[in-house]
Amino acid sequence: MNELPQQLANGLILGAMYGLIAIGYTMVYGIIQLINFAHGEIFMIGGFGALTVYLWMPAGVSLLAIIPLMIIGGVICSVAVSTAAERFAYRPLRGAPRLAPLITAIGLSLALQQAIWKWYPDAKKDRSFPQFKGEAIDIFGAHIQRGDLFVLITAPICMLALGLFVSKTRSGRGMQATSQDPDTAKLMGINTDRIIVMAFAIGAAFAAVAAVAYGLKNGQIGFKMGFIMGLKAFTAAVLGGIGNIYGAMLGGVVLGIAESLATGYMSNVPGMELFGGGAWKDVWAFVLLIIVLLLRPQGLLGERVADRA
Amino acid sequence: MRHRSLLILTTVLTTGALTLTACGSRDDSKKSSSGDTQTVVIGVDAPITGDLSALGLGIKNSAELAVKTANKDKTVPGIKFEVKPLDDQAQPSVGQQNAQKFIDDDTVLGVVGPLNSGVSQSMQKPLNDASLTQVSPANTGTELTQGENWKTGDKKRPYKTYFRTATTDQIQGAFAAKYLFNDAKIKQVYLIDDQKPYGAGLAASFKATFTTLGGKIVGTDHVNPDDRDFNAVVTKVKKSGAKAVYYGGEYPAGAPLSQQLKDSVQIPLMGGDGMYSADFIKLNKKAQGDIATSVGKPVEELDSAKKFIADYKTAGYKDAYEAYGGGTYDATWAIIEAVKLAVADNNGKLPDDARAKVLDAMSKVKFDGVTGPVSFDEYGDTTNTMMTAYQVDGGKWTSKLSEVYKP
Q: Is the full-model pTM beyond 0.90?
């Protein structure tokens, strides 16, 4: 059996999830140059929002029918928390030195984790998440689980919608203008505050979709899950070129596939037996990041921009 | 998780400082009223929150139950026992701080716990320096009692204060290998561990016995216990043609690993006592057929445990006693027995150097506990090497084979 298609599919599924979360990092960074470290927790809250909706539903309703409602519930929770964070934690610091909002973001990340840990029922350990029943589907020699189809379908749809939104609508063009030069954009009559809130909201909504995908895939969610996933997604955003939405998705997929291939094949390379396998996959993913940044400091799809300061 | 532990550290430090001052004043009032009853505190250290809290809460409740029973039956006349449970969140650094808190509280004469071998490694030395007896119901790391070089036959007990009612990884891994090879008739196994002291130790001893028996390890891999996506590893397992996977690790990562394994190939996952939890089945919709070994006989099948189970039910604890309930009860009871011996030697009063006297008495402790006869050998290990293999059947663990393991 050739395991390459399977490993590529594993990486693609994982990477699409990273990409969806990375959108949030990249959009916020593109507009206000803030690395929103609380974004991993926004992702986690989306998962708990979706789980709450599921628990409210009467038993016996098919999961397929509940999924849209779960997504809506997750999106509402994520967006609410994310926009509130923007309004009360980041906006008052808009003019402050860049380190101040960065530290605030880290603090917020801790606070959100502890809040879920403390107040969500039974969240002190992992909670089980509903999953689709049924056999896996074989495509091109790869075995794809029902739950994984969710991310493979939603991720391209989300990207397409976002691409159209940014390039075709008035608000989307306002967003581009704000990211190029906020002061001039303001002079041209763009409400930049609204644009910034919108960037946070869109990022949060994508994170919530990713959280539903994560739950369906792994069958469990926990208050700690945002930390590792957020870190990986941030890496994906940098890999793809931070500030570029397509770069975020590409970076996610490249990172996911790199992890998967490193697990699968690195131990077969002569002399590398000790450095292969699941425990070393993160190391190889970051080696890849360093190589890409050495050759293309702006990331895969990033543009070389002069530092505004 | 670095920044979370920073927060915890600050909180622990502040609360620690606050409780220390509180303890100081309470001690004074106790000494003045030491006429009739004296209080002995038994510290309990376990992961009461976090991933492993299902097991941790079972430990805390069972220790409380033992103390309650001792107080009710007046097992040691003139002594009232209390429990002081602290949460270690399965983190060695927190465990060490907890050890210090137990040491600083003069009324603590023994510590039950912790759950994780890795946490124990950070607690052993401070407790040893303070001559404070520690009995773990769950640690299976062989080096904890027999020293770093136990593999080469050079057994040396590193800490005289450390005892346990659980058997070692060496025995557990060997028993698992024998069960899989002889009883489940599986000869090709893929070996995975989570690189923690418990998981890696278990996997190593499994491998040693399994290959001696003639079984074949068709591949090995290591995973990160915080991961939940193991598909890349599962793909390798499938290609290797393994008939089962042995996982050295605990259920939070074991559950998704088992599920993803079953998603692509129908072979069972086998693990040690860290997987033997009801939560493993709750978090894993495809647990059917998975195997785990655990220490002792299933408490449900033991006559000696009937009273424990009934009492646990009567006490109305919300959480199950889980894998280590019986062992914890026995560990706590061992300390109570040691206090009893120390008090009997001192005309019914607590001796002045109570910690040292309790420690001396530990080697003489012998009683019939929940899990069977309890006593400790020259390394502090339990003399009871009864092991049981369980298999998931119809949504619950059912016992398959119990036997006293002889190497």
A: no
